[in-house]
Amino acid sequence: MTSRLIPESRTRRLNDHDPVDGKYVLYWMRHSQRSEQNHALEFAVRRANDLGKPLLVGVGIGDDPSVRTERQMRFQLEGLHETVGALQRRNIAMVVRKESPIDVAMKLVGDACEVVCDRGYLRHDRRWVDRFQREANRPVWQIESNVIVPVEMASDDREYAARTIRSQLQEAAEKTLDELATTPVDNTADGLSVNGIDLDDLDSCVQSLDLDHTVAKCDEFDGGTSQARSRLNAFLSDSLDEYRDDISVIQPHCSMLSPYLHFGQISPLKVALEVRQAGANRESTADFIEELLVRRELAINFVYFDSDYDGLDCLPDWARKTLEKHESDPRPDHYTASELEDGQTDDPVWNAAMTEMRCRGYLHNHLRMYWGKRILGWTNTIQHAYRVTLDLNNKYFYDGNDPNSYANVAWVFGNHDRAFGERDVFGKVRTMSASGLDRKIDTDAYVRSIAERFAASKA
């Protein structure tokens, strides 16, 4: 069902200031970088219409802890380039600047009547928004559009496993899964004169930014809402029916939408609605919704309610204690951080996975889990293992620095999991062995595939 309603559960007034006389309403875009199915954008259009003002969308791409590499930035800018054009067709102006997101917002707010922002969940995003709403001196609204169920609607506390949040999310989703109608724009932004960078030359733009340029774009992934839609359509027609039985890491039946969801280039509600309407078998549909709704939004709950999400202090007591107890256990193999990054271990499957990460920016979930568990078994301290795993994850994956990144790494060390039988090194934390992976996938075929595909790029 298509709805014009923006639910109160997605809407927060962050301060009590009155609107001022300005040139425009500002939408500070961060996490919902799209022109469609975006509650924050539609709310901003309605506020601009109510005030008789044009709408300006502002984006800052400099000094952003969430986008650290050329690979990630290029993907983001490809999406922003498409969004600029789509908003222009709706008579909405959009400006992108090389300054940090908070600096761009603070500079653009001076001519704004009021401000709308979307919602992020990591520490730096929340600090920026808190500072902004205190210093803006005009109304600031925050609209949550990058989740199926708003975070506090699902739970008001940290949840410790999927089973403790699943029923709340599933019940709430039945109330939130509506397609959002587009709001006509009453006041054109043609008269606004606000300077930003030219996104027609993405190569020059990317090279001018302070990034890790050793991690380059991969040809397989292009950013943007149209690319996300194409991947979704292909998944629905070719792969969804096989999703439950997906055991191939060479030709997987995956949506590969995680980078697009991470940058907000496609709405998770849009994805969920189309998956539910696709007519695929019930089991595969349920399994996909489990990942999109329960697992993804459990990760958001984790980083939102636990400020220690990027370190060992986030782990449950049993996991931290058992890992500390076994920290001095002998490791059959030990590798330095640089050896791991270069894929120089004695495990050919792990090396192939690391090569795929470096060269492709993507990894099948089976391999992501195995990749992380092996690092825990190969490093001399759990603190070092945690840091190496998180750093490599956030450096090479297109969807690095996402709530899922932090939840997935914490899972390697026992978060969102239960205790198992005690073993050397891992203690009671779940292990993943090479023989166990062999039972899930054809590891020999995978290693050959990666060697052939990335022979020229192999470190």
What count of domains describes the coordinates? 2
H/E element string?
A: EEEHEHEHEHEHHEHHHHHHHHHHHHH
Number of H/I helices = 19
What amount of the residues lies in strands? 5-15%
- Oligomeric assembly: single chain
What's the shape? globular
| Category from helices, strands and their pairing | alpha/beta
Question: Which CATH class of the largest domain?
Answer: Mainly Alpha
Domain Photolyase/cryptochrome alpha/beta: 23-151
Catalytic activity: cyclobutadipyrimidine (in DNA) = 2 pyrimidine residues (in DNA)
Pfam family, one: DNA_photolyase
EC number: 4.1.99.3
Overall description:
It is globular and about 70 Å long. With 459 residues, the protein is α/β, with parallel strands linked by helices. Helix 3 packs parallel to helix 4 (123-135), helix 14 packs across helix 19 and helix 16 packs antiparallel against helix 17. Helix content is 47%, strand content 7%. It folds into 2 domains: 1-181 and 204-307, Serine Threonine Protein Phosphatase 5, Tetratricopeptide repeat (Alpha Horseshoe), CATH 1.25.40.80; 312-453, DNA Cyclobutane Dipyrimidine Photolyase, subunit A, domain 3. Helix 4 (123-135) links the parallel strand 6 and strand 7 (140-143). Strands 2-7-6-3-4-5 form a 6-stranded mixed β-sheet, sandwiched between helices. Strands 1-8 form a two-stranded parallel sheet. It starts with a strand and ends in a 6-residue tail after the last helix. The mean pLDDT is 96. One of its GO terms (molecular function) is deoxyribodipyrimidine photo-lyase activity. It holds the Pfam family DNA_photolyase.
